[in-house]
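Most newcomers find our protein records easier to grasp once they have seen one. Sequence and backbone structure share a record, each on its own labelled line. Nothing more is needed to start thinking about how sequence determines fold. As an example, a complete record with its sequence and its structure tokens follows.
=====
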Amino acid sequence: MTKTKTKPTETKMTTITIDNKEYDLNALSEEAKAQLVSIQFVDQELQRVNAQAAVLQTARVAYAKALNEALGADLVFNS
């Protein structure tokens, strides 16, 4: 039986760039890591709210169009 030697897996440094400066995530304080988690949560919520706003705006346009058709008029709500 032949044994092969394997090189130990190199540890890959995980970094984050803030204001054009790279930081090693493993070297950050627990407080800094907690702040990053909070920022990620807020970014996800902003994406969700923006998507919801787009859906609502699309619905508003559709309702305004339906109202105009029901009234037999030109656009009543233009925004």
Notes: Residues 1-6 have pLDDT under 50 and may be disordered.
